[in-house]
């Protein structure tokens, strides 16, 4: 595959499938708006709308010689995107011959929504591990009875503040293994992990189970969607957060447990010198992510690392790492957050590493320089947003999530495994 400033080469559907199955690097980029992308796209496609290529492409695809295939659905956007990418210095840009219609005609799967393959992976984890879950009605009864439970919300704090389960505490996903022991020190306390829907509840609960927490651990079945379908009231504007500081013994226990999980998943460990040696390999794309919360990251991080809080990195991998087949290196001054995040990325088919050290020398401070957030233009609204038939739409959305496992099986390119 190659491109010129005048005309991009073309790549076939078979070319894409071959690269995915051989685990070769590929950035498959849908250049339509998010709403169109979310109505159907190949499993490992990432989305950069044409109007944002100048702002996002060099950030999200950091190696100029990365093989890139762009497509649209007949709107004439892909040719313009390929030309723009060439102007930005990308040397190997191709058009998907026939666009998305060619993918359809070949009989391959189209996945709806955003972050689809992370959600599909979460469904696979629940199926393979039998991640225990409690329905909303049962959790509401436990709250009413003042039972010995701790409800931990695994979403971003800003999501938590919009609406959450009564009595819950904000503990973003990668923080769970590090902080759950302090929030539920009595092994008899039952821990319930929730998110808005399913994925982060499943991954969060299974993280605690994988780390062998002595407590009983459950996901809240279907998250706040399930809570709403049960016609139970959500809280708004809450600010209950896990403490920033963690007891040293709790850190040691979490570090030991998380490292064992990462080892089981095949995560590799790097010293700073070994990282420098791998980075010298210009034939591969590297993503370097510090998985701590933004405030910690901005106070001081290893040079060259970007910020992606671990739970969101697992949830939004297509956004943070659109080059499938790239290497991902994670850092964390305490360790457990990077190890647990890396364990999930490895199971999702990524070549995942954890940096040992990197915080003893000079550190960079401040934000990582990521492109500004997108505005509302072209944003995808889920079927239950802004509808007069919210309950039916919510149930339909859950039914779609349940069906993702069958789509994975039909698609056949994912390479996921579950430890």
Structural topology:
Blueprint (H helix, E strand, L loop, with lengths): L8 E3 L1 H9 L5 E4 L3 H4 L8 E2 L5 H8 L7 E4 L5 H11 L5 E4 L2 H7 L10 H14 L3 E2 L1 H9 L4 E5 L3 H6 L6 E2 L5 H8 L6 E5 L4 H12 L6 E4 L2 H7 L18 H18 L2 E3 L1 H8 L6 E5 L3 H6 L6 E2 L2 H6 L1 H4 L6 E5 L4 H12 L3 E5 L34 H13 L1 H8 L8
Parallel strand pairs: 1-5, 2-3, 2-4, 4-5, 6-10, 7-8, 7-9, 9-10, 11-15, 12-13, 12-14, 14-15
Helix pairs in contact: 6-10, 6-19, 9-12, 11-18, 12-17
Features:
13% strand, Oxidized Rhodanese, domain 1, 5-stranded parallel beta sheet, single chain, 419 residues, 41% helix, alpha/beta
Textual characterization of the structure:
- By secondary structure, the protein is of the alpha/beta class.
- The chain has 3 domains: about 10-115, Oxidized Rhodanese, domain 1 (3-Layer(aba) Sandwich), CATH 3.40.250; about 120-245, Oxidized Rhodanese, domain 1 (3-Layer(aba) Sandwich); about 250-355, Oxidized Rhodanese, domain 1 (3-Layer(aba) Sandwich), CATH 3.40.250.
- Helices cover about 40% and strands about 15% of the residues.
- The protein contains 19 helices and 15 strands.
- It has helices at about 15-20, 35, 55-60, 75-85, 100-105, 115-130, 135-145, 155-160, 175-185, 200-210, 225-230, 250-265, 270-280, 295-300, 310-315, 315-320, 335-345, 390-400, 405-410; strands at about 10, 25-30, 45, 70, 95, 135, 150-155, 170, 190-195, 215-220, 270, 285-290, 305, 325-330, 350-355.
- The chain has a 5-stranded parallel beta sheet with strand order 1-5-4-2-3.
- The longest helix has 18 residues, at about 250-265.
- The protein is globular.
- The two termini are about 35 Å apart.
């Amino acid at each position: 595959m190659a491109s010129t400033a005048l005309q991009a080469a073309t790549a076939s559907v078979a070319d894409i499938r071959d690269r995915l199955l051989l685990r070769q690097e590929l950035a498959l980029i849908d250049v339509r708006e998010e709403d169109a992308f979310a109505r159907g796209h190949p499993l490992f496609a990432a989305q950069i709308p044409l109007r944002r290529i100048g702002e996002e492409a060099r950030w999200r695809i950091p190696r100029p010689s990365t093989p890139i295939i762009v497509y649209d659905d007949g709107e004439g956007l892909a040719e313009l995107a390929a030309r723009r990418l060439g102007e930005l210095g990308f040397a190997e840009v191709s058009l998907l011959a026939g666009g998305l219609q060619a993918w359809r005609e070949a009989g391959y799967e189209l996945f709806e929504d955003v972050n689809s393959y992370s959600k599909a992976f979460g469904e696979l984890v629940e199926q393979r591990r039998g991640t225990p879950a409690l329905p909303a009605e049962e959790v509401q009864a436990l709250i009413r009875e003042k039972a010995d439970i701790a409800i931990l919300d695994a979403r971003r704090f800003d999501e938590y503040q919009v609406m959450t389960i009564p009595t819950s505490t904000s503990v973003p996903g990668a923080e769970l293994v590090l902080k759950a022991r302090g929030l539920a020190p009595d092994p008899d306390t039952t821990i319930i992990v929730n998110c808005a829907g399913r994925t982060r509840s499943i991954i969060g609960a299974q993280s605690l189970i994988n780390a062998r927490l002595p407590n009983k651990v459950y996901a809240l079945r279907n998250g706040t969607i399930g809570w709403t379908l049960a016609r139970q009231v959500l809280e708004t504007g809450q600010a209950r957060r896990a403490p920033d500081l963690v007891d040293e013994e709790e850190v040691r226990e979490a570090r030991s447990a998380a490292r064992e999980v990462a080892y089981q998943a095949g995560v590799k460990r790097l010293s700073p010198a070994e990282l420098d040696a791998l980075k010298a390999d210009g034939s591969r794309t590297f993503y370097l992510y510090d998985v701590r919360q933004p405030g910690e990251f901005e106070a001081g991080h290893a040079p060259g690392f970007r910020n992606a809080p671990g739970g969101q990195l697992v949830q939004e991998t297509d956004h943070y790492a659109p080059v499938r087949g790239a290497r991902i290196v994670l850092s964390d001054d305490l360790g457990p957050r990077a190890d647990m995040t890396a364990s999930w990325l490895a199971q999702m088919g990524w070549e995942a590493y954890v940096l040992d050290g990197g915080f003893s020398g000079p550190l960079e401070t401040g934000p990582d320089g990521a492109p500004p957030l997108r505005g509302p233009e072209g944003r995808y609204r889920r079927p239950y947003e802004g509808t007069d038939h919210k309950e039916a739409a919510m149930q339909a959305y859950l039914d779609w999530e349940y069906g993702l496992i069958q789509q994975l099986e039909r698609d056949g390119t994912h390479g996921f495994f579950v430890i």
